[in-house]
Design a protein that fits this description.
By secondary structure, the protein is α+β, with helices and mostly antiparallel strands. It has a 5-stranded mixed beta sheet, with helices on one face. A 3-stranded antiparallel beta sheet has the order 2-1-5. Strands 3-4 form a two-stranded antiparallel ribbon. Strand 6 and strand 7 form a beta hairpin.
Length: 249
Amino acid sequence: MRYYLLTLFFVVTACQSSKNITYFNDIAMANGRDTTIHVPPLRVHPGDVLQITITTLDKDISLIFNPNPTGTNVVNSNGIDQGYLVDATGNINLPIVGQVNVKDKTTSEINTEVSEKLDKTLKNVYVSTRIVSFKVSVLGDVARPGSFKIGTERVSILDALSMAGDLNVTAERNGVMVIREVDGVKQYASINLNDSKTLSSPYYYLENNDVVYVRPGSNKKFPTSKSVILLPAIISLISLGTTIVLLSK
């Protein structure tokens, strides 16, 4: 009877400890599936920097649009994104094309509009647009806080946390904040990483310049010396040793 009680106590204690640092505790099984919500396409806003690659059969014409033939030099020596800066009114100026309003448009819509404008004077035009200034920032109780450049138009909060080295053991997982600016207005959302409903949240996928803030847990108030960090492991080892001694008797 004593063996059963001690084993049960040890298992329950270990499970309670692991629940504090795991994600999506309400998912009972590792397999299964869920329907992904419709993710709205990323739209261009003032202040974004666009890389617009325009190619034609005429190499000289292509060189006018793309001074750098390789198309890889999108950051200058000062670390500033190179490309077409979207001004406060949402416009950019392209050679030959002139002014194009790109505010609230997707990269696909920009490709179509620029192609239609160029088709009037050029033939066999190919247009490719991407947002080279797309970044998210992760702050707070994570391993490597900082700002991260995103090479695609779709990044989730889990992707961002992975780039930051994941949450520390001391971090709160039920109140991760996402800060987003829309038309000059700051929006705030609290994300619970212990709840699988987060996977369907409109803030699960991040947008350009989103900020993810991870709150430190209550145990973060203690000094972060090595002895304090190792204290839970030391206590667990002592408990395990005590359990083994009792069982041996």
